[in-house]
Amino acid sequence: MRLLREIIAEHRAVGDIHRMPSALADQIAAGEVVERPASVVKELIENAIDAGATRISVLVEQGGQRLIQVSDNGRGMDAADLGLAFERHATSKLRSTADLAAIATLGFRGEALPSIASVAKVVARSSTGPEEGHEITVAGGQAGAVKPAPPVGGTTIQVRNLFYNTPARRKFLKAPRTENQHIIEVVRRFALCCPQIAFDLTHGDKELFRLPASDLAGRIGAVFARRYKNAIRPVALSKEPFTVEGFVGNLSLVRGRPKEQYIFLNGRSVQDRLLNSAVYGAYRSLVSRGEYPFFVLNISMPLEAVDVNVHPAKSEVRFRDEWRVYHVLKLAVTEAIKDIPGMIPDFERPFGPAPFPAAGGPGLAPALPVDSGTLFEAAPKPAGGEGAGTAGKPGDTGGGEQRSLRPEAPYNPELIWQVHNKYIFSQVASGVVMIDQHVAHERVLYEEALKAFNGSRRPSQSVLFPQVLELATDEYSRLIDMIPYLERLGFRLREFGHQTVIIEGLPIDVAWGREQEIITDVLDRTDGRMEGAEVFEKMAASYSCKAAVKAGDPLTLEEMRNVVDRLFATENPYYCPHGRPTVVHLSAAELDRRFERI
What we know:
- By secondary structure, the chain is of the alpha+beta class.
- Among the domains are: 22-211, 2-Layer Sandwich (Heat Shock Protein 90); 217-343, 2-Layer Sandwich (Ribosomal Protein S5, domain 2), CATH 3.30.230; 459-507 and 510-547, MutL, C-terminal domain, regulatory subdomain (Ribosomal Protein S8, Chain: A, domain 1), CATH 3.30.1370.100.
- It contains 18 helices and 23 strands.
- Helix 13 packs antiparallel against helix 16 (532-547).
- 37% of the residues are buried.
C-alpha cells in the first residue's frame, strides 16, 4: 500500500507554501481578539484604564454594529504614538521578555487596535494637553496620515461598520438587542472592577448607565438595584501574600442561573471555575444545587504568581499555586457568611402578626399570608360525580351520604393530615397515600399557567401595599417585554420610573413577599432567544416552582384538601414539571410485610 504522503506529494503543486498578504493575516488574527462588538468595547476600555482615565464614556448604535465610540480623559497620545498605535505588536506596556513575568496592565500584546482596524473603519483622536490634538483614520487595516485635530482631553476612538470587509463574520452576529446585552455586561464588569472610575453607556439616544465614581458598595447599588446595597455583606481577608476584598450577597440575591458572579484578580476580570467553586463551596450549606449566590470579589496577589498570557481574550489565568488561592478565597467567603441569621432575608410584613411559627427558626418570615385561607383559590368541582366532596366544605357529606372518593383522586378527604409540614398523608382502603405538598402544588400551578398562556387569563388579587421592583438595565428591558405574559398569570405591573416597575397585583396563589423572587427567577430562566411554546413552558415551570407552597409551610385542613383536589384535576397529577413524583402509595400489604405480619 502506498504511503499517504507519497500520494499527497504527487498532487502537490510546486510552490504551494507562500506568505499570506498582511491584510489577510491581520483579519485572521482579529478573529482571536474581536469576536463581536462587545469585544471591541472591552479592548478599548482596557486601553483607557491603562492610560489612567478617571472617566470613560461608551456610545454604541445598533448593538455596536454601526458605531462604537469610547472616550476617556486619560494621558492621551502624541502624533508619533498615535501613528504607531495601529501597527501590530506596537505597545507601551512591555519592554522586554522579563516584563512578561509580572504583567501589571490590562493590555500588553499590542494587538487590539490593529485587529479592530483590520475589520472596521476607525477614526482615533487623541491629545496629551490642551493645546493640540491629532487624528488618524484606518479602514480595513490601511492607515492614513496623522493629522492635526482639536484637543479632546484624552482619547476618543470611533469604530464604524464592524466586519464590513468580512461578511462571513458579520452574518454570525446576533440581533442588535442581543449584542447590546453583551456590551452592557462588559461595561458592568469594568464598572464593578473599577468603582473609582466614572462610566457612561449610551445606546443610540438612550442612556443605559451613568455611574459617578464611588466605592464598591455604592457601585453595586447603582449597577444593579438599590436593594442590592442593603443585601450584601463585606468580605475582607488578608493572608500573605493574598488579599481578598469585596462583597457577597445574602440569600435574597441567590439566582437560578450563573449570572451575577464577578471575580477580579489584580484589577482584571477573570473567569475561573476553581475560584467560582471556592465561593460556591462556602455557600454549600445555604443554597440548593442549581442556585447561584451573588458576589463581587477582588483578589490581590503577587504579579509573578499568576500568568495572564494564556488566552486570546485574557480572561483566563494560570496560577503558580491554584489550590492555595482556592482555600484563601473559600476561607474569606466562609468568614463573611458565618452569621447564618444575617444571611437570611427578613421580609417584614406591613400588617398583622405571623399566624404560624417560622419554619426555619428566628429570622424566617412565614411563607403563608396572614389570612392563610386566601392562599388558594377554590378547588375545582370533583370529577367523580355528585357524591364526591368539595375541598371548601369540611365535613360536608353530600346530603347525609358518605363522601365518596373520585376515581382519579386516590385519597380520603376525611382522613388527611400533614407530616413534618412537608407531606400530606391520607388513609385509603388499600393502604396509605403520601403526597409531597410542594411538587403537588407545583404541578397544579404549572398546568394552570399553561392554560393562562393559551387564553384563560388567571385571576389577580390587589396588594395592600404595592411593591416597587428595581432591576438592572438589561433585566428591566426584558421584563417590559414579558409584562403581557406575566399579566396572564395574574400579576399586575406597570412602569414606574427609571429601571423600575411597580407590582400592584399578584396571582391568587402567590403569598405576599414572594413576588420579587418569582419575577426574578422567571427572568433568569427565560432566554431572550426563546420563542413560542418554549417561552411559555419555561415561564410556567419557573413560576410554579417559586409560587408553590414550600416544604416546611404549615397547611390547614382546607388547604391540604384544596391542593390535593386541584392536583387530581390536572392532566398529569403524578409528576411535577421537572419529573419528580408527586404521589407515593404504600399498600397495606407492604405495611404488613414491614411489621412481619405476613
